[in-house]
Specification:
By secondary structure, the protein is of the alpha/beta class. It has one domain: Protein tyrosine phosphatase superfamily (Protein-Tyrosine Phosphatase, Chain A), CATH 3.90.190.10. The chain contains 5 helices and 8 strands. It starts with 9 loop residues before the first strand and ends with a strand. The strands form 2 sheets. Strands 4-3-7-2-1-8 form a 6-stranded mixed β-sheet.
């Protein structure tokens, strides 16, 4: 199978009970500048990388975005330490104090909550799992969270394979 590297991120925006998540694929070393600019345009303050380290973080840091590297095995449930850091970041990001330190030592000033971006390699495995867990913790019924994440994976597959017909309207979008 041939791999397809997009120049710009394909963004899935998930908003629920005052929390805004962006699920995306991973940038490559040659596309990280574009990804960082797009995240900055969307007012992302934190990027959670749950896959292996494939790009430099400096382009994100240069636009004021913190990258948290919380890798865990593809196809597995996030370990407790990662879930603890994830929930702490979300609490601080959306409800907490203005000055915070995340579990990996990154300090941040969260004046206005914007989206928190999460990515794995393709954007439909580990990253959506973290978002689904957060949605369930926020009170979304488990089945609804699972169906939402499955629909995201399905839509992503259709986008990548180019199988959308012109009349279909989806929330997932490739940014211009």
């Amino acid at each position: 199978m041939v791999s397809r590297q997009l120049l710009k991120p394909v963004i899935t925006d998930v908003v629920y009970k005052g929390m805004n998540f962006i699920i995306m694929d991973s940038p490559a070393a040659d596309t990280v500048q574009t990804f960082a600019k797009e995240c900055s345009r969307l007012h992302v303050s934190d990027v959670i990388r749950v896959c292996e380290d494939k790009y430099p973080v400096e382009p994100f840091e240069n636009v004021g975005i913190r990258v948290h590297h919380w890798e865990f095995e593809d196809g597995s449930f996030p370990p407790d330490d990662i879930l603890d850091k994830w929930f702490e970041l979300l609490r601080l990001r959306f409800y907490g104090s203005k000055k915070t330190t995340s579990g990996d030592g990154n300090s941040s000033d969260h004046a206005t909550p914007g989206p928190v971006a999460v990515h794995c390699l393709a954007g439909y495995g580990r990253a959506p799992v973290l978002v689904a867990v957060a949605l369930m913790e926020l009170g979304m019924p488990n089945q609804d969270a699972i169906e939402l994440i499955r629909s995201i994976a399905y839509i992503w597959t259709l986008l990548v394979t180019g199988c959308f017909s012109p009349g279909i309207n989806v929330k997932r979008k490739e940014n211009e």
